[in-house]
Amino acid sequence: MYNSCPRDSRAAKACLEFSKDGFDDWFLPSINELLKIRDNAGILGLLSNENYDYASSSEANADEMITSPYSIAGQVASSIYIRNISKMAVIKVMPVRYF
After folding, report:
1. Is 2 left (phi over 0), alpha (psi -120 to 50) or beta?
2. Is there a domain that residue 94 lies in?
3. How many CB atoms lie within 10 A of CB 53?
4. CA distance 5 to 24
5. Which span out of 28-32, 66-70, 87-91 was modeled with the highest average pLDDT?
6. What is the pLDDT of residue 8?
7. Is 74 exposed, middle or buried (0-12, 13-18, 19+ CB in 10 A)?
8. Is 93 inside any structural domain?
9. Percent with pLDDT over 70 in the chain
10. In degrees rounded to 5, what are phi and psi of residue 91?
11. Cα(24)–Cα(98) distance, rounded to whole angstroms?
């Protein structure tokens, strides 16, 4: 996905360049990985009262990525809220890494 993103919208690049606590092997999660994080948000202490989309590395087509709202009024959103959004959209990014 990184190579096909428009120059001004590089969510994958933001994750690849992210560094925290000495780790620099972060990446942009797929929609399935993002949904797993979201579905376990309560356990992970990540629930929020805000409602916003996170970028995923999953593409709907050449111009759109698949996103999912992170929370709906403090509750974890269900997969029915998955939607496509322009790769040029300004949305949140959640870098992840395997450990």
Report:
1. alpha
2. no
3. 19
4. 21
5. 28-32
6. 44
7. exposed
8. no
9. 72
10. -135, 170
11. 11
Domain of residue 31: give its range. Answer: 2-86
Structural domains in the chain (count): 1
Model-wide pTM > 0.90: no
Q: Is residue 92 part of a domain?
A: no
> Which stretches of the chain are assigned E, i.e. beta strand?
53-54, 64-69, 71-72, 75-76, 83-86
For 30-53, write each residue's pLDDT tens digit: 988 888 887 777 777 776 666 678
Query: What is the residue type of 10?
Result: R
Per the structure block, which two tokens stand in for 23?
């780790």
Q: Per residue in 15-29, pLDDT tens?
A: 889 999 999 999 999
